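Homework help board

Subject: predicted structure for assignment chain

Our instructor gave us this sequence and asked us to write out the predicted structure in token form, then describe one feature. I got the tokens but I'm not sure how to describe them. Can anyone check?
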Amino acid sequence: MPIISNAVPASFDRLARTYDAEFTHSAIAQWLRARVWQRLDALFSPGMRVLEIGCGTGEDALHLAQRGVEVVATDASLVMLAVAAQKILAAGLTATFHHFDLNDPQNWKLDSIFDGVYSNFGPLNCTHHWKPLADFLEQKTTAQAYLAFGVMGRFCLWETLWHGFHLDWRTATRRWSGKSTAQVHDGNPFTVYYPSSRQLAQAFAPVFSPVRKTGLGVFLPPSDIFPVIETRPTLMNLLMNLESRLAPPVLADHYWLELQKI
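My token output:
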């Protein structure tokens, strides 16, 4: 089975120390994450054991741990894992952390059976081997377990309009073919995949069935455009209000897909 490119963890190692300042603590990211937390809180109750795929700096793991959910958090970046572990420790909470290769789940050293699984803000875009992941999660989840994924979609209205207006057609259309090349903090380039929600659901069928789908970032822009909007609070609040009322996933930066084991 293909092994994840070393460019991916190396890139996110570089990003780890500044990720919270550049993304997590931004006003738009906090607003979007709060919407995700509403769904995670609805799916995962205190005492449940859940698996996080691609924990980053541990913001979602921290939120769930504060609610009494037992989190096993994984990431391809050792530096991200170190930042996340320190964040949990500083809060006086506990979670378990594992280094992983997203393209080789059968070799993950996880003995637990999980009541649910989640992955937020795009880790599943770093692989196109979703079927092996689905097979692994079938083995590692309880009956009727929920999976909840935040995934960058095939078409982002904001990205296309903004970069098209600035005549950056390569960025404006980069998702349309289903994959593109990304580079983080001048690191080595790596491939990013953009599955449609239908494509991802098909990879997890027939064991997992979709039960909910919504958009994250329809009226609110992708992270590279956050500063443009955050310096205009009246506009930002208007866009947040629109986002809370209408969020079709087909136009969004990310879609939020929930599946249940059947």
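Reply (TA_rk): Your tokens look well-formed. For the description, you could write something like this. The chain is about 40% helix and 20% strand. That's the kind of observation they're looking for.
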